[in-house]
Amino acid sequence: MSAPASDIIIECxxxxxxxGHFHALKGINLTVKRGEVVVxxxxxxxxxxxxxxxxxxxxxxxxxxxxxxxIELSNDVxxxxxxxxxxxxxxxxxxxxxHLTVMQNITLAPIWVRRWPKSKAEATAMELLERMGIxxxxxKFPGQLSGGQQQRVAIARALAMQPKIMLxxxxxxxxxxxxxxxxxxxxxxxxxxxxxMVVVSHEMGxxxxxxxxxxxxxxxxxxxxxxxxxxxxxxQQERTxxxxxxxxxxxxxx
Amino acid sequence: xxAAWLVYLILRPALTWVFTQAEWQVIxxxxxxxxxxxxxxxxxxxxxxxxxxxxxxxxxxxGVWGQAARTFAALFGAAALLFVLLPFSLNARLNWxxxxxxxxxxxxxxxxxxxxxPWVILGWVILLPLTIVLTAGAAWLPFLSPVAPRLWxxxxxxxxxxxxGNTLALPLGIxxxxxxxxxxxxxxxxxxxxxxxxxxxxxxxxxxxxxxMLPLFLPAEIRVDPVVRVIIGLTLFExxxxxxxxxxxxxxxxxxxxxxAYALGLNGVLTMLFIILPQALRLVIPxxxxxxxxxxxxxxxxxxxxxxxxxxxxxxxxxxxxxxxxYREVYAFLFVVYWAFSMMFSYASQRLEKTLGVGTR
Lengths: 254, 361
Ligand SMILES: Nc1ncnc2c1ncn2[C@@H]1O[C@H](COP(=O)(O)OP(=O)(O)OP(=O)(O)O)[C@@H](O)[C@H]1O
Ligand SMILES: [Mg+2]
Prior knowledge:
The complex is a heterodimer of chains A (254) and B (361).
Chain A: E1 8-19, E2 22-33, E3 37-41, H1 48-54, E4 63-68, E5 71-72, H2 77-86, E6 87-90, H3 102-112, H4 118-131, H5 147-159, E7 165-169, H6 177-192, E8 196-200, H7 204-210, E9 213-218, E10 221-226, H8 228-233, H9 238-248
Parallel strand pairs in A: 3-8, 3-9, 6-7, 7-8
Antiparallel strand pairs in A: 1-2, 1-4, 4-5, 9-10
Chain B: H1 2-21, H2 25-29, H3 31-36, H4 44-65, H5 67-85, H6 90-110, H7 117-136, H8 154-180, H9 185-199, H10 203-217, H11 226-251, H12 255-263, H13 268-283, H14 285-298, H15 310-318, H16 327-356
Helix pairs in contact in B: 4-5, 4-6, 4-7, 5-6, 8-9, 8-11, 8-14, 8-15, 9-11, 10-11, 11-13, 11-14, 12-13, 14-16, 15-16
The complex binds adenosine-5'-triphosphate and magnesium ion (MG).
Adenosine-5'-triphosphate (ATP) is lined by residues 19, 22, 24, 44-50 of chain A.
């Protein structure tokens, strides 16, 4: 807690979330600094998605505080929309808008939320598509693209709002193996460009390469956190060791 | 093979009757009545203006969209050609020639000019309001002295009821469907109450209410034309059904679409307008058009409250001394007219689905 306040972009204090009687998040404390890349991993149902979605209030938390770039998430709609336009999120299932072209998917929010002129929004979109390596797909519909291409469009769509933070919820787990690399490469480039990223992923090669910090979730709690070296070479908790051995042994690829 | 043979067995006497025995004079003599009821002769030119405008917009659509609009334009042209050839008044036949020329000229003019597309869309949007203004007129408009809607009859009335009723009912239905999902309990229960109430009442009752009860509730100075009252009744009735159709589409939308939109910072209104409604409505086009066609056929019920729609006009012609007992001819004619329009609407529905389906698969 020694970093100056402006250095911290996400601050979670004792965040709790219940689905009915089910206690999905049990007191999460976490701070993320500007430019940091945090990778969250853990077993299915441990609350990773719930947590990352709480950061832009796609899920509401019932206790504790979440402060994003100085704004506390509360029921105030204006706050929520302000925070959301500063945070990009990429979903496991892409969630592109199937009735709009790639270009329209990307420019919609900049035009209607940021009030950019169409020409500026389209120029930015083209730049992003070039960064993602798919400028030639601009005028196709999402349904005409491969999964990997769709996910890169989704990243471009989120980036078009020029967010301060990017959230990724298992961005590669719905992809065929041969498409995972192209998406991970785009994410690595983004991480190196200095973007603050919170990534739920079990791509351990990716984590090892770009994560500043890794966080292990289990049953709605943070069980362990540390740098990739600490987590991979000297995990402190039994559950972390067990989980890592399960995901690393059968399918070590990179 | 067997089916074809059966069809032949049934069709042969029917066709023989159509071409040799039937006496179509009843239709020819009363054609004006069938088409427009008591609509005054001196105002008929305004209906023609409407038809010419339709031909213009249709022809231009054919020009700019080609294949997507071609069949419609061709059907319209074929109908016009048929009317040119049938033994109507010279005046009417010349007008249909004019309509045909307009159609083709508009097509040639607009061909390969994509820049005209916004204008063509604008044309379709103003087609209905323009037709209504032309048909009804208004005291303050030059050349367009008012024609009371209660004088509308026949096909004119049937189409006006169907198209105005449906056009007004769809937006109302969308609002009701959205209201039904509202988080505000007052709005939500109002919409549910409205929808369930109207769906629980038969259309005939609605029509009687509009015709007999409504004037009792309104102050004596306010006199609403019976046709307008029926249109209001049909609209309110149809809105409840369209609301349920739209609701089906809204429910089919995956949560991820809402979330992706919200996550980009779009507010609820923009999300509905740009993301949810376009997809939800597209999903339920068949249901929407189905209700449209149902309403078209249900307009025959307005005869019960004394409006001279196509069906009732048919009955009145049968009472003319010259044509007593010509019910086969009259009903065959009505059958063909209703059938042709129903087919056209359902073909339009398929076409629309296909055209708008682009990119979703
Ligand atoms: N809308 C909901 N209603 C009720 N329970 C929910 C809801 N969303 C999630 N849960 C429950 O909360 C728990 C945490 O879910 P979450 O999706 O956050 O897990 P996860 O760690 O992302 O798992 P996975 O790796 O499978 O994606 C799960 O037990 C899940 O069943
Ligand atoms: Mg998850």
